[in-house]
């Protein structure tokens, strides 16, 4: 490293920064209007509104990355609440439940100017049951006079209430210090699971693509559809299914089975549920209804899985309904709409007839293998050396930026750091990624490449 003009500390720092694996997850829950979204904005350090002006606006972004005192984590915002859909208590319970499931720690926000309400108490019950670490935020304490209101929230039995003003930032530093104490270094959900235990699969896709049918099919039995409101009962959330002699854990299947049919707000719940399932899983099987055009919603769901850095398989379902014409157009759509995830293994299935069900597990195994791939530094640099001499970066301003060396900083998904003598253009980075994939596989996994440029 030294002879290439990087000092060792810089190299180690870059590798450590890039190699962080999946981040722990913080959920922010509470009643409507207590200031959850305002607090999330504060935590992620962004002023522009996550808070929506219009009620009922579909929000599909529910997780954000944040950093405090040099530690990074994800925040799940549950502020996209819809009052009319389920009624207050059920709505709050449902959103809190999904978010808590996916979280490693929870910030429970209460409006200190109002005090604890029955709805707050209902969330406290959920929190107790979940057993996750909780930090209690007594919000809307905009000045010292509100501190007494905050103190009354000791009555919730969740320990010390932290008086904050999400709006003005008062007290949020202390709150975040406490959050960091509560958050594990790595997400327990995904990576604290017993090594050698069952792999975790999230079955995701927009409503009616056939998730529940597929789950029933692979589980080999028809199941009773649970018809209760989300949050009112607690059926087992994850399900163990034996496939090909191996146990797999399908996460968040209660969400799939519950089949709450909502009119408005359904998209928001679907997004929250998808985000929760993805956080808990190692691999996402994204179902797409092959009989219909690939939609923006399908794309958003795929983006969620990719951004979360999970392994991914695409299952085109309802294959039994396709005629030749639809098949032709589907292939064209896949090319134009889903070109950016051409690395994901693909299966064409029918949950109804059972077509190609046996291909699902091998595809999932392929994706997990790609996700876990580690390329030894020697092999990587031999490859980079050849690549750079055969395909040098175009000369810019009389200079030719060169990749000097690289290393894989982490896996699940694979993360690389390349050290270069100058800025690498976007097109060249894409080229490097393509060649890396050709050389080492990485089927079914997103890969991250960061580039450090020598000063
Ligand atoms: P959510 O429904 O829980 O996500 O709540 P929002 O973040 O949308 O906030 C609801 C309302 O409370 C908005 O009008 C916010 O401006 C206001 N609000 C949020 N935090 C504070 C605070 O710390 N102090 C005051 N005075 N108002 C706040
Ligand atoms: P979910 O909302 O994603 O769980 O979707 P469901 O499993 O409830 O399926 C929605 C509808 O699509 C139901 O009427 C299913 O019978 C139907 N369906 C699911 N898979 C298939 C399939 O492979 N072929 C056909 N023809 N219909 C299917």
From TrEMBL:
PANTHER family, per database record: GTPASE DER (PTHR43834)
Signal peptide: none
Name of this chain's protein: GTPase Der
Organism encoding this protein: Streptomyces chengmaiensis
Protein task: GTPase that plays an essential role in the late steps of ribosome biogenesis.
NCBIfam families: GTPase_EngA, PRK03003.1, small_GTP
Pfam families: KH_dom-like, MMR_HSR1
Assembly and binders: Associates with the 50S ribosomal subunit.
Keyword annotations of the record: GTP-binding, Nucleotide-binding, Repeat, Ribosome biogenesis
Binding residues for GTP 2: 205-212, 252-256, 317-320
Gene responsible for this protein: der
Organism taxonomic ancestry: Bacteria, Bacillati, Actinomycetota, Actinomycetes, Kitasatosporales
